[in-house]
Amino acid sequence: MTLRSGWCLLVLGCAAWAAPLPAAAQQPRDTGLVATYRATADRLIAAATADTAAWLRLAELTDRFGSRISGSESLERALDWILVEMRRDGLESVRGEPAMVPHWVRGSESLDLVEPRAARLPMLGLGRSVGTPPEGITAPVLVVHDTLELRARAAEARGKIVLWDAPYVSYGETVTYRWNGAIWAAQVGAVAALLRSVSPFEMRQPHTGTTHYDSSAAPIPFAAISIEDAAMLHRMQGRGQPVVVTLKMEAHMLPDVASKNVVAELRGSEKPDEVVVISGHLDSWDVGTGAMDDAGGFVAAWQALLVMKRLGLRPRRTVRLVGWTNEEYGTRGGLAYRDAHLADLGKHDLAIESDGGVFRPTGFGFTGSDSAFAVVRAIGPLLAPVGADTITKGGGGTDIGPIMQRGVPGMGLNDDGSRYFWYHHSDADTVDKLDAREVAKCVAAMAVMAYVVADLPQQLPRGGVPPAGE
Prior knowledge:
The chain is an alpha/beta fold and 470 residues long. The protein has 15 helices and 16 strands. Helix 3 (32-48) packs antiparallel against helix 15 and helix 4 (53-65) packs across helix 15. It is elongated.
């Protein structure tokens, strides 16, 4: 699909930009788009980076309410507080949009080494895991590196607790053991499973996250342990020492409960029915305070909208702020939004999500047509002052995924994630891990990208996507 004629008035050489571009191509030269928006972008960046308001608001939110797992009172109190604060900020169309969410409860849990010596081992049950009997499960441990080793030693696994000591390669690759590890262990007769935390680094601080069951085997309890303890148990096994543990978990699912996405807007000046979404999720795991994952992403989007408002900037289209519920184990917030807005998804110009920790921003990843990619890529140079000018193909987010599947172009904020998985889904996910200046730069990047796309003469061009409602 080529760029619409309206773009030619704004982007010089638009016919060249309409051709497909490789993701790794060099950054575009200065265009009419950059010249048109440079002064406004500089104002947004200056205002966003002038203070530490975003970090301070993030600290207040996470200190006040702590962890916010779906189904919890703490999440609902946080959402209610945010609605009050957004109204106090003078934002428009502030509301909660309902969503039913799953409710998993951790309960008490423990892991004790019985042989070759007695010791209490740090552990975290994995989200959606089933629990153990009240007396727990005491069994020998079989430590394996991967699925190949488990298949080779399947006869040894029956009646044991399988420990996956899978080295961290990347989150995307290694997390498959968290997602499927209980299934694979149960298929060979294991009575429970343990997981070396999915992290490249920790200080004896286990990481939780969602696990999964299917019909191929009965569900068994599944918990994460620290990198250090996984290595220790592996060494013990390698010496031929018997390794026996007692695992106790009260984990269980309760019926779904009512929750909500929180929404506020800056109404468009000319096309208020057309929408650019900026967002992050507000639920977290029940450990730490969910500052990186993902209160920081939502607060950055919130502050981006406030910066536009306080500067008196009102783009042609509406910029809609969404704080998602239930990203961590269900995506019910994203699904509820899709269903509630199905009829108007054709007027959703772009959905932006931040769910990477609001560290130093580097740019955005974009999923959409080649013509739309050319347009958002041309916005990149406006973000050079905060180092966020690299726009690549491929990006989005879990919460905006449901509307992206309906054809809405999607974009994810990219940042320096080198330390993100050190703290991810652990007690260490707290606001002190985030630098206030870096958070402010994330605010600036989101504000500039959202404002410019919302103000362009035409919607981002689409191509080869299903029409809304089908």
